TrEMBL record:
<dbReference type="GO" id="GO:0003677">
    <property type="term" value="F:DNA binding"/>
</dbReference>
<feature type="domain" description="DDE-1">
    <location>
        <begin position="182"/>
        <end position="333"/>
    </location>
</feature>
<feature type="region of interest" description="Disordered">
    <location>
        <begin position="1"/>
        <end position="21"/>
    </location>
</feature>
<dbReference type="Pfam" id="PF04218">
    <property type="entry name" value="CENP-B_N"/>
</dbReference>
<feature type="domain" description="HTH CENPB-type">
    <location>
        <begin position="90"/>
        <end position="113"/>
    </location>
</feature>
<feature type="region of interest" description="Disordered">
    <location>
        <begin position="378"/>
        <end position="403"/>
    </location>
</feature>
<dbReference type="InterPro" id="IPR004875">
    <property type="entry name" value="DDE_SF_endonuclease_dom"/>
</dbReference>
<dbReference type="InterPro" id="IPR036397">
    <property type="entry name" value="RNaseH_sf"/>
</dbReference>
<feature type="compositionally biased region" description="Acidic residues">
    <location>
        <begin position="378"/>
        <end position="394"/>
    </location>
</feature>
<dbReference type="InterPro" id="IPR006600">
    <property type="entry name" value="HTH_CenpB_DNA-bd_dom"/>
</dbReference>
<dbReference type="InterPro" id="IPR050863">
    <property type="entry name" value="CenT-Element_Derived"/>
</dbReference>
<keyword id="KW-0539">Nucleus</keyword>
<protein>
    <recommendedName>
        <fullName>DDE-1 domain-containing protein</fullName>
    </recommendedName>
</protein>
<dbReference type="InterPro" id="IPR007889">
    <property type="entry name" value="HTH_Psq"/>
</dbReference>
<dbReference type="Pfam" id="PF03184">
    <property type="entry name" value="DDE_1"/>
</dbReference>
<dbReference type="GO" id="GO:0005634">
    <property type="term" value="C:nucleus"/>
</dbReference>
<feature type="domain" description="HTH psq-type">
    <location>
        <begin position="24"/>
        <end position="67"/>
    </location>
</feature>
Length: 403
């Protein structure tokens, strides 16, 4: 005899429902991720053991759920960053996110991975917030105009390095001699609150590199300095102040019809001399560990300069590409056809123009003439390179013609 199954009590039904409820945001996010992986509502409901309507309800509130997770994540990170010591909060449950999940999470909420180092890592936020008021009182008391207030800072420039990364073939990266170009110089940049930028100082490793042999360095668009590591030192900082900054500031203010009364703002970096003095110039050092937050050069001037430097460097490469196209267009069909004579004489037409060798010599003559007009000289190292290229190509410029 079959017995009827007793109906579950309300208490047991409520208990079952309680067990099906999500207890954490993590579980809801995992459910939403399953839906994003094209799992059906029914399949997800079966996986978690509850009604399909519950899955649809969670999906309907996806934006709010994910936003709550992001806010919680950022708040937790900010708290940890401000209090790097041991946490007194209970340990969270171990959450093992896949790389794909974390990548999507970063993109969705615009979270970036950065290294906390240098000035930004040790920035004194309180000092940075208080100093502008002190600075404003100084300006009002001394009566400085924007044209008279300058900020100086230095930055490293990898002048041969185009982009931070690029896509290259793996075999190429492993090739002997492969390395990224990291020739570094230091630039001393200085500008005022009115938007005027001075001629920058440049610190190179060499006092007289081959490229500048027999060149008048006073005519360069930079103030040339050197030291073994291409770093700023107190001596170079003092030289820049007296020989570069002072003359330019005087000329600039004189042309504007303004008095030579200058405020120069600097950070207290090790290479900056603390005993700089010149009549009419006030030196103001920014609070320690606050320069990355308030120094004008760090607020976009240097970053904008480097971006424009890279753009203009790449533009030169683009110009070279257009020269390639121009040279190809100048080549005549008859010349190209004549070059097939040894391999396929039957296809060569009766060519009466200049031979390829004659065209080459004519082009070389014009190039040599232009080089002499421009006053260019060829260094011994460049001559050796030219010799090797001539041997490889069997023909080329003769050194005597370039001397």
């Amino acid at each position: 005899m079959l017995h009827k199954r007793s109906a579950p009590s309300k208490a047991s039904t409520n208990e079952a429902k309680q067990q099906k409820k999500f207890k954490t945001l993590q579980e809801k996010v995992e459910l939403l991720d399953l839906l994003r992986e094209k799992k059906s509502y029914a399949a997800v409901a079966r996986h978690y053991g509850f009604n399909e309507s519950t899955v649809r309800y969670i999906k309907k509130n996806e934006a709010a759920i994910r936003s709550t997770v992001a806010v919680s994540f950022c708040d937790s990170f900010a708290t940890d960053a401000e209090n790097p010591g041991p946490s007194t909060a209970p340990d969270p449950q171990d959450f093992q996110a896949s790389k794909g999940w974390f990548d999507r999470f970063q993109k969705r909420f615009n979270i970036k991975s950065v290294s906390l180092h240098g000035e930004a890592a040790s920035a004194d936020i309180d000092a940075a917030q208080k100093y502008p008021e002190t600075f404003r009182h100084m300006i009002e008391e001394k009566g400085y105009k924007p044209e008279q207030v300058f900020n100086m800072d230095e930055t490293g420039l990898f002048w041969k390095k185009m982009l931070s990364r690029t896509y290259i073939m793996k075999d190429e990266a492993k090739a002997p001699g492969f390395k990224a170009q990291k020739d570094r110089v230091t630039l001393i940049m200085c500008g005022n609150a009115a938007g005027y930028m001075m001629k920058p100082g440049l610190i190179h490793k060499s006092a007289n590199p081959r490229a500048l042999k027999n060149k008048n360095k006073n005519l360069l668009p930079v103030y040339w300095m050197h030291n073994a590591k291409a770093w700023i030192t107190k001596v170079l900082g003092s030289n820049w102040f007296h020989q570069c900054f002072i003359p330019q500031a005087k000329e600039y203010l004189h042309n504007l019809g303004m008095d030579f009364k200058v405020l120069l703002i600097m950070d207290n970096a090790g290479g900056h001399p603390l005993d700089l003095y010149y009549e009419g110039v006030q030196i103001e050092f920014l609070p320690a560990n606050a320069t990355s937050l308030i120094q004008p050069m760090d607020q976009g001037v240097i970053r904008a300069f480097k971006a424009l430097y890279t753009r203009n460097s790449l533009q030169h490469l683009v110009d070279c590409l257009s020269v390639i196209q121009t040279a190809l267009k100048e080549m005549k069909k008859e010349t190209l056809n004549a070059c097939w004579k040894k391999l396929w004489p039957e296809c060569v037409h009766d060519y009466k123009g200049l031979s390829p060798e004659e065209i080459q010599h004519e082009a070389v003559d014009k190039a040599v003439t232009l080089a002499k007009i421009l006053g260019e000289s060829v260094s011994e190292e460049e001559k050796e390179v030219t010799d090797r290229e001539e041997e490889e190509q069997e023909q080329g410029l003769t050194l005597e013609r370039l001397s």
